[in-house]
Amino acid sequence: MKAYLELIILLPLLGAIINALLGGRLLSRRASEWLACAVIWGSFAATLAAAIVYRAPATVEIVSWLSDFDFKASLTLYLDPLSLSLCLMITFVCGLIHLYAVGYMKDDPSSVRFFALLNLFVAAMLMLVLAENLPLLYLGWEGVGFCSYALIGFWHTKPANATAGRKAFIVTRIGDTGLGIAVVWMFELFGTESIPHLNQMGHLLPAGIVTALGLLMLLAAMGKSAQVPLMVWLPDAMAGPTPVSAQIHAATMVTAGVYLLMRMFPLIGVSPTVTAAIAITGALTAFYGATCALVQRDLKRILAYSTISQIGYMMLGVGAGAITAATFHLLVHAFFKALLFLGAGCVITALHHEQDIFRMGGLRRTLPGIFWPFLAGALCLAGVPLTGGFFSKDGILGAVWLKGGALYGGLYVVGLVTAFITAVYTARMVLVVFCGDGIHPLPPGGGGLGRGGLKQLPRIMEWPLIPLAILGLCGGLLNLPEYMGNGLLHLFLLSLGSHEQTLPHSTEILLQGVAAAVAAAGILTAWFRYGGKRRQESLAKEQKPAGGIAAFLLEGWRVDALYDLLLVRPYTRLSTFLWQQLDEGCIDDSLDRMASLFGRCGQWLGGRGQGRVSLSLLGMAAGAALMVFWMVWGMP
Amino acid sequence: MNQFPFLTLLLFLPLAGAFLLLTMTGREKLARSTALTIAVAETVLACSAWFCQGNSSARGYFLFEDRPWIETLGIRYTVGMDGITLLLVTLTALVTVIAMLVSWRSITERVALHFLLILAMESGIMGVFLSLDLFLFYLFWELMLIPMFFLISIWGHDRNIYSAVKFFLYTLVGSLLMLLAIIGVYLIHGEQSGIYSFGLAALTGTRFSPATGLLLYGAFLLAFAVKFPLVPLHTWLPDAHTDAPTAGSVILAGLLLKTGAYGLIRFGYPLFPEAARTLSPLLIGLAVAGIIYASWIAFAQKDMKRLVAYSSIGHMGFVALGIAVWTPVALSGALLQMVNHGLTTTALFALVGMLDERAHTRQIEDYGGLWGKIPLFSAFFVLFAMASAGLPGLNNFVGEFLILTGSFKSAHLATALAFIGVILPLVYTVRLVQEVIFQEERRPLPMADISSRELFILAFLALADLYIGLHPAPLLEILKAPVALLTGGVP
Fold first, then answer.
1. Contact B403, B321 (CB under 8 A)
2. In this complex, do B301 and A170 lie within 8 Å of one another by their Cβ atoms?
3. B473: which chain A residues are within 8 Å (Cβ-Cβ)?
4. What is the ipTM, given to two decimal places?
């Protein structure tokens, strides 16, 4: 077990180090690409092996890290059902993304740097998931932040990209302070940083402290998982290469916040205030993301807002205490969101880097190899019955329903409304991009044309979509509702000790019926607007610059502008003010004045002495003699 | 105790070298290589001290020399080395070598004098770290000031004379007050016990009335706070750094700033435990205010050196916080952070110096797109910038994290605020990296990627950063015994 666990982490890390040091010099480009893929698949194999021999939660100490007096945090890995299922998903999905990236980065001159960072990203995420203690989790947590920064701004010559990377890093770091404070506070309270130990101590504490700790961790989760109000970095994060977007949105990074809350749930879940706050944040974010996705024109931006929204569902699930349902949705979402992003990357590449959906259309016929998998992903996202996304979303909504009460009842309604909007924007995206006649942009400079003026895609970009599509569609089998059999995942995660109740079968079927109706209604709504003959009319209407509520949604509720006004500009201005007015103008200046005052006094005194050197020398000699006299005879 | 005067050798080898260099004025190459040889020999000497750790005496000093010097006044030549000193002495030797290497080509006038002053300063700093007699300490404290004054005023740029004088006056005012306080402690102790001595061991445990204690401790604190520097006594530092030659900046940030923190740990707290405890809320407040204030100002800087200088003030605020709360974990974190800051800031100043050498400008707005032109340099730049921003896995995180862990118990609010202070360095760092390394080049500047000499400097510092970031255990182990002795913790 120990060897497997070490391999899971070390392989991607090794890949990153070798590529960073030798790539481009000793290693050929081809070799470094395949090395990057091989280490991830090796890590997947190790995870699979660990899953096969897995019997009970295992703790493996690899090497000491920080240890000072009573403080101890070593490089210790912890494998339990939760971390195991996440590791399987991460290594598998990232493995596919890496393969895809080989094709995607075919023409990029700095692909070595790209693959080194991509490997490091996976290593950091695995470290986060497998960490046994909080400082180590924090190491992975910040590592993920750094990699996202470097990868979002990968094409750094364009200021917008570099700024997007910087924004992601800073916004998530703001959330990280919550985690940092919680980490040192928990050490003070319990004298340990070990997560399994901490999780047994929730009820030993006064409720107020648990609530405070939970809220601090929620703050951290808001940053990493792009929840309201720290969600502003994610829509810009799609500035990076598409494989990076897929990796950030599906397998790594954004799920980290949800994972933290699930990991620490036995501790923080004790406080009803915390669970309510988590649930409200989740529901609000789900609604926010869905409404913004409704009007976006950039294909990747639609997907980005849908990620925000779907992660909101996961948070809602955690807030309802349904860890299994949240994990289930996390896994299924990883499959279909990776699929959608990779599919979108294919579409965008084929169209010579066109991202505006209004300049697409009719791709159903020209790109069938992309269309069918993409459709599968879209069905999951829209929550069409019997897809993985349907079951996982339903599990969360069911859990919220079960919680009952005014608050959770309201949140259930919000969840349902969001599900409707989700179906609408998903169907809009598919209809506009793949149906109709199509308005193809002309390729710049011509040449390299494949089917119908499209750029030929490498095969390696197309086939990773297939396994993801199958997993997305059949993901429901992972955790079927009780009346259909049993939930594999449910049984597997039972050992986590969460006491999740199950709905009566009749209620569950009823709720699923409602969810199915909502999804169908959403898709129909989109069809009435964008399907068939009405397509041209609606598109022409939306081509015009948006106004009113559409513009408000297009700009993400204008939160960016608000933060710019409230935070960014005051910070910048105050910085200059503090420097020029306070530091140099006040503190430094007063000292300069004091110095010149002394200088003038000296000049005045010098004037008195009229520059007679002999007098000065005489005075100096007398003083020195007096001192020597005192030192030799005067001292006791 | 030790027959071979190891510490004396360590202390005076650079000074002897400085005198040797006096004979070499005008012979540049010879002077340079002699100076480097001596600095390397000193490093070897400092590193060999790591093997002497076995025979530790009761007070934790494993190397100790004590000889009478001016007996009528009770002044003795007492020097000793414990884990804290060992770490700082090693840092001093290494940073001196690096300071020589970074100025290898950039200094073309009065070369012998330049290297002579660096060696003299090394002796002064070694003396500060090794002295256990207050008079001796004061002597070295002043000695290290003079070479720095000349380094800035002769080889500096822009307003070099102004900055040098400012630096000199600032530190002198602090240290003169400290001299008065030293004499005060000496007299009070003499009256109490009848034995007049400047020895730290003898003076520890002297009883002061609360008012006298506060007054004397205040004078010490003032001298150390200027060196730290703590806000609002910091305004000499941005000027001195900006106008100093690269070697000057490196030594200033890497070593001189550490002497204030060291003085507080070795002399301030042990001599005046009550007064120190009374004033610790003040120190905590100044530390946290400094972290936030300086990091905030760093964001607005246009000159790269000035930015790094302000970042230095912010980082030293963490060290001050760790000392102020005086718990074992925080104090060892603070000591480790002194080393970390020494390494990382040295690297940053060296990097800025390399840019300045190539393009003769330090303005951020003149650069841009360096990754496309000099990728190796840029990779190092990003690495050290991230270390400075406290990315886990690199050295600064370890120190900051231990300080915050150790200080949370005694200062909840201050620690929480200091956590906010962890965001701000990231903000100015990523801005710096974006404008200098990323984006498009803004002015066509002559740029060559790093030479093998520069690669050696940077690779060495990078390895040290990574090593401390990933495996700080050996260093923390060395600090354990002396920190436990100082704080009364259980090792």
1. yes
2. no
3. 64-67
4. 0.92
